Request: fold
Amino acid sequence: MEVILNDITKLEVNAIVNAANTSLLGGSGVDGAIHRAAGKELVMECRSLGGCKTGDAKLTKGYNLPANFIIHTVGPVWQGGNNGEPELLANCYRKSLQIAIERKFESLAFPCISTGIYGYPKDKAAEIAVKTCSEELKNKNSQLKVIFCCFGKDNYQIYQRILNQL
Reply:
């Protein structure tokens, strides 16, 4: 696992993860950036999926992105941490990894899920991301290369600190 400071829409990996909303039809932040970069065909495919529940994940093609596929996952809105948010966020990572491993992907890039308008505290979200991915890769004996792609330096530094503690 590694962390990079980059624009996830520019990465040449098997799949990128989109921090989507339940409609899967695009929104703000990384969701909007991915939809804009992928092109109109992405919205057409997403319409056919019938949305996505919080904590779940669905796969689409990457269209105009360098990545071949997009795994859309819906993170929880932060409500103080006592309403199942940690488990729902962990499920986003588990379900995304499950799809990538089943598809025999070699590389997968995650953005920071739920830390934008959904308000999840960045340090808590990063700890869940790293812990969940580490456990899942170990449990599945997977060689999948996981990249945490941060757009901002603050998130990048948080992930660096947590990954260095492994």
Summary: The CA atoms of residues 52 and 119 lie 20 Å apart. The chain has one domain: 2-164. The beta strands are 2-5, 15-20, 57-61, 69-74, 107-110, 145-150. The two ends are 10 Å apart (CA to CA).
